[in-house]
Amino acid sequence: VLNSILYNKNGTSSLGTATPGNAIRVINENGAVAAVGEVGYLEVQAPSIALGYYKDPEWSSRVFKDWVATGDVVYSDSEGNIHHMGRATDMIKIRGQYINPGELEETLQNYNGIDQVAVVSKADVNNVDMLEAYVVLREQAQVTVNDLKRYMLSKHEKYMCPNNIHIVDHLPRTDTGK
Fold it and tell me: I need a surface site. Which of 42, 133, 137, 154 has the fewest CB within 10 A?
């Protein structure tokens, strides 16, 4: 959908603005149009969008309404450009901030001695979501949790850094290796 509805004519890092004949808006968690810079969910209107999912009326009724919910977490800037933060299904909201766990995993993956990483949200004893990282070290790597915490703080704002980092022997995988 986004390829035909948004166009970046300025070559910036944004997705751009709506192409002629199409409409876009960012909706906040309350269902209102988000303010400039406020993170929300992208919705679109366009004559080229399907009427629904093939043989899936339940999902069609959730996504395809007057405005189509794309599932993208975005914000708009003062020029109306849309900036993509990730997919709603991939984002974690911690203390009111949207965090892309993939970005944090990539940062940890770049640390020398790291083999595999997974970042997840986990409720603490007060039922507040916190970030946790699970890290598998390469053979012979001498990496400590404190090394990783300092590294993350040097690369990201504190709210984005996992509260807990666990060094584990392996990460669980599905039968297909995911």
Answer: 154
